[in-house]
Design a protein that fits this description.
Elements (H helix, E strand, L loop, with lengths): L6 H10 L2 H12 L3 E2 H5 L6 H13 L3 E6 L2 E6 L2 H11 L2 H16 L2 H4 L3 H13 L1
Antiparallel strand pairs: 1-3, 2-3
Helix pairs in contact: 1-4, 1-5
Length: 130
């Protein structure tokens, strides 16, 4: 089997694939360090479920945990996301060309964008005659 991605890149994308984990990262982006119980509070799932999500984020290197007494706090570590962005940038030219073409299309006057309905009917008639 051919491997196209580094294992750390795989774990980063896998961790980012879940909306709950992305929401946890967004919360950590806003605050320096947040306790696990504070992170879990807005979610309609159990604390053990949040702990599993945090394990996935930790395994991917996206968060670090620090224990002070009985409180465990989490911090964002963006380095793996930077690596993922670097990988995505290599392919940016493919979608950049498509977006540029789409932008050029919408920058044309509206009359030029609308297909000529009569031309389509004429082309159909010509093909029927053949």
């Amino acid at each position: 089997m051919v491997k196209y991605q580094e294992p750390s890149l795989d774990t980063t994308f896998a961790a980012l694939s879940d909306p709950t984990r992305r929401a946890l990262l967004a919360r950590l982006e806003q605050e320096e360090a947040v306790s696990v119980s504070e992170l879990a509070r807005p979610f309609p799932v159990s604390l053990p479920a949040i702990m599993k999500h945090l394990d996935v984020l930790s395994d991917a290197g996206l968060i670090t945990r620090e224990k002070a007494g009985r409180t465990v706090s989490c911090r964002l570590n963006a380095a793996p996301m930077e690596e993922a962005m670097g990988w995505l940038r290599r392919y940016e030219r493919f979608w950049r060309e498509k977006l540029d073409a789409l932008e050029a299309y919408f920058n044309r006057p509206r009359k030029e964008r609308e297909p000529d309905k009569h031309a389509d009917k004429d082309a159909a008639k010509d093909s029927d005659k053949s």
